[in-house]
Amino acid sequence: MAFVVDASIAAAWMLPDEQTGATDAVMERLTAAPALVPSLFWHEARSLFLTAERRGRFAPGAAQAAMLRLRRLPIEDRGSGNDQMVLELAAAQELTAYDAAYLALAVDEGAALATLDRKLAAAARRQLVPLLGPLAEP
After folding, report:
1. How is domain 3-132 classified at the CATH fold level?
2. Full-prediction pTM beyond 0.85?
3. 130: helix, coil or strand?
4. pLDDT along the chain (138 residues), means of 10
5. Environment class of 58 (CB within 10 Å of its CB; exposed 0-12, middle 13-18, buried 19+)
6. What does the pLDDT read at residue 78?
7. For helices 7-14 and 40-54, what crossing angle results, to 10°?
8. DSSP-derived 3-state class of residue 116
């Protein structure tokens, strides 16, 4: 079954010091089902990788290489999302519109959400959205 993945998980896939067994398990799920993302995912991933490069966590040029690897994964861009749902979730859950876009997509698709963002994970739990990755309940 497809699932929603946010940029924090994608960063963990590409940054060796952030990889864990739990983040690797989320990546392994891509062999069975694609990850779903709102369009902003790609911008967030670029920003995370560029920041990692600027801070010396990536070698020069590694941000682009990470984006190329990410683009090869079975990730489906589902567009900008439902404005009303994103805004309502952002207001109700005290999230940024960026984070609410991931939650809205998971709610709309009836899909689990993979994130490393604790506030987003807490909001997902309140919305009864299953979590994947390190913040999933055992």
Report:
1. Rossmann fold (3.40.50)
2. yes
3. coil
4. 96 90 94 96 97 94 96 97 97 97 98 98 97 89
5. buried
6. 97
7. 40
8. coil
CA neighbor of 76 nearest in space, from 132, 125, 4:
4
Which has the closest alpha carbon to 101: 91, 86, 122? 86
What ranges do the domains of the chain cover?
3-132
- What span, in angstroms and rounded, lies between the C-alpha atoms of 89 and 100? 6
Tokens in use for 27? 């990546």
- Residues 83-111 pLDDT 10s: 999 999 999 999 999 999 999 999 999 99
Which residues are paired to 132 by β-bridges? 114
CB atoms within 10 A of CB 133: 25
Distances (CA, A) of 75 to 31, 53, 58, 121, 138: 11, 23, 23, 20, 26
Q: Residue 59 region, left (φ>0) first, then alpha (ψ -120 to 50), else beta?
A: beta
